[in-house]
Design goal:
The chain is built from six helices and five strands. The chain is α+β, with helices and mostly antiparallel strands. Strands 3-4-5 form a three-stranded antiparallel β-sheet, with helices on one face. A two-stranded parallel ribbon has the order 1-2. It is globular and about 50 Å long.
């Protein structure tokens, strides 16, 4: 928290709202809000209650703070889509602003979880972005089979014994339905555990 506060102060933030868990979820709390369908694949497949917690706390924060704008990063593409659906379906008066995925100079997707990685683990984590870049190169060469692209990513990541793959997905970026052929706008997303951290990364293939 202290490092976050320092960063906020450095850009001139005036107020930080940081409620305690007890304030947000007092004794007797029993209400949850859930978005259906798009929460089930990818990050939700092995963690079925993940997005129920996300949508519930985000809705509570929106109700308390009443923001005009809320900013969410495209690194967690699925979470962003879930929140956009929440806002749309419940007619919430807040604009969701998409923040593009930001990478380190070496290509590693920026994440607060990176600070938990050793130098060696950070090098290992580069395999995620390298695999995505290689997938994009294959597609530019005319390879559009999702199975072939997935197998290539899996092979690259499996060569590193210190990477535990959670999922590799090639899907529609709105419905998250898996694709057999890469046609039209496509999301390539992956998640893996490296050391103590579960990392995610993605790229968008625009229509070609």
């Amino acid at each position: 928290l202290e490092s976050d506060i320092e960063k906020l102060e450095s850009i001139g933030v005036d107020i930080l709202f940081h409620p305690s868990k007890q304030e947000m979820y007092p004794v007797g709390y029993q209400t949850c809000v859930e978005v259906q369908n798009i929460t089930k694949p990818l990050c939700g497949k092995n963690r079925p209650d993940l997005f129920k917690g996300v949508t519930t706390v985000v809705l509570k924060l929106f109700n308390i703070v009443r923001p005009h704008n809320a900013f969410f990063g495209e690194k967690d593409w699925q979470q962003l889509a879930v929140i956009e659906t929440l806002v749309k379906d419940l007619s919430l008066d807040v604009a969701i602003i998409r923040i593009p995925l930001v990478r380190e100079p070496n290509g590693l997707a920026m994440s607060s979880r990176n600070r938990c990685l050793s130098d060696q683990e950070k090098q290992t984590a580069l395999s995620l972005s390298h695999s995505l870049q290689e997938a994009q190169d294959f597609i530019k060469q005319g390879i559009t089979s999702a199975k072939i692209i997935k197998n290539g990513i899996r092979k690259n990541l499996s060569e590193r014994k210190d990477i535990e793959i959670d999922y590799i997905s090639i899907c529609d970026p709105e419905s998250f339905i898996e694709k057999k052929q890469i046609r039209g706008r496509t999301l390539i997303a992956l998640a893996a555990k490296i050391g103590p951290s579960r990392l995610i990364d993605n790229c968008i293939i625009e229509e070609f």
